Amino acid sequence: MTVAVEILEKLERKMTLSVPVDIIQSEVTARLKKLARTVKMDGFRPGKVPMSVVAQRYGYNVQYEVMNDKVGEAFVRAASQAQLRVAGQPKINEKEGGTEGELAFDALFEVYPDVKIGDLASAEVEKVTTEVSDAAIEKTVEILRKQRRTFSLRPHDAAAQDGDRVIVDFEGKIDGEAFSGGKAEDFQFILGDGQMLKEFEEATRGLKLGESKTFPLVFPADYHGKDVAGKTADFMVTLKKVEAAHLPEVNEALAKSLGIADASVDGLRADIKKNLEREVKLRLLARNKAVVMDALVAKAELDLPNAIVRAEMDRLLDGARADLKQRGIKDADKVVIPDDVFRPQAERRVRLGLVVAELVQTNDLQAKMEQIKAHVEELAASYEKPAEVSRWYFSDNKRLAEVEGIVLENNVTDFVMSKAKVTEKSISFDELMAQN
């Protein structure tokens, strides 16, 4: 039987489905009989409920289920026969005036688009590179030292300076009025570590034990406390305790405490360099991958299936609500979030997914098992027991699928890089690490 498919607009399609009434009735009867063998109803023994009673109680629901099943099966057969790649779920409505003995339905649906990718040789891609310098290694050594610092009380007449751990009382007011979060006692922070706003640290720096200082503080416009963001407060801070920091020496003892195999300073720096190079590689891959994906999308022409975009918007909305719930927001599932907030992001994700899928299919860029194994081994190498980490990945299909997705994206990135006009740009280690 030939399936007639009507093209409505862009990716929208329509076709008429027919389902024989006797097939529906036969299936409804079969399901009711099966139900009658197990259904429990007051006044009847199990399996002895009359069919008429079962039909009266459950007939409508069974009829509805059978109709859905049979129409769904008819749609799948028709779509397969017409060689259609259906995007999302069809909208099916019963149609008047069907052939005698049959029920007719109109199915409205979308199909996946044809994706046209332009000449990648004309795409321009900036590839970033970074070297792990000695300065970056030394900076990491200092971070490790700070993480293991100890503190001791300073003399009473010593002024607080950067690196000290201080305990203060403070109180702030806006237009003479106290505000939430503007007052604390015995508040502890490390001076110079950026834990507090700049004006607060500047006021505390140089104070001696028992001294106080008043100062104005302008809250940034994007401050997390919305009630005070962009406003100016008058603060008073009093120093109650100041402790000097003592950083461990860079020696064999420090290397040993960090688990370095040969417990030497050279071994410590070599281990830091290896870890930094691994982190740099991952960040470069992520950054260059993003640039490649932008270039790839710019070279593609396609229409977007509204059903797939809608599903992606719903997924992003669910994720946003879950995030709000995790942050402790009350009634997060009832918070009003406009749909269109997620539309640009959803459209980009769908567009990129379709373009990547087309490129992978036409150029055989699927992730190979040896690539997946190599990537897992690389991930596991940074752990104390790599073999156990590898087994952890391979013991779960979902985790392995995530790795497969990363490898596939890397294949796409390499492919586009091999075709496009690539210019290399070297940036500093600090610049790379500062990028999100």
Unreliable runs: none
**Span between N and C termini?**
56 Å
Number of helices: 12
What percentage of amino acids are in beta strands?
15-25%
Structural class: alpha+beta
How many DSSP-defined strands?
A: 13
Helix content: 40-55%
Radius of gyration: 33 Å
CATH class of the largest domain: Mainly Alpha
User: What best-fitting shape do the alpha-carbon axes yield?
Assistant: extended
What does this structure look like?
This protein is α+β, with helices and mostly antiparallel strands and 436 residues long. Helix 7 (306-326) crosses helix 8. Helix content is 46%, strand content 22%. The strands form 4 sheets. Strands 7, 8, 9, 10 and 11 form a 5-stranded antiparallel β-sheet that branches. Strands 1-2-4-3 form a 4-stranded antiparallel β-sheet. A hairpin with a 4-residue loop joins strand 1 (6-7) and strand 2.
Short note summarizing the structure:
The protein is an alpha+beta fold and 436 residues long. The protein has helices at 21-36, 51-81, 134-147, 198-204, 252-257, 265-298, 306-326, 343-363, 369-380, 386-394, 397-419, 429-434; strands spanning 6-7, 12-20, 86-95, 102-111, 116-117, 124-129, 150-153, 165-174, 177-190, 212-218, 232-246, 300-301, 421-426. The strands form 4 sheets. Strands 7, 8, 9, 10 and 11 form a 5-stranded antiparallel β-sheet that branches.
Keywords, separated by commas or semicolons:
13 strands; extended; 436 residues; Trigger factor, domain 2; single chain; 12 helices; 4-stranded antiparallel sheet; Alpha-Beta Plaits; 5-stranded antiparallel sheet; alpha+beta; 46% helix; Chitinase A, domain 3; 3 domains
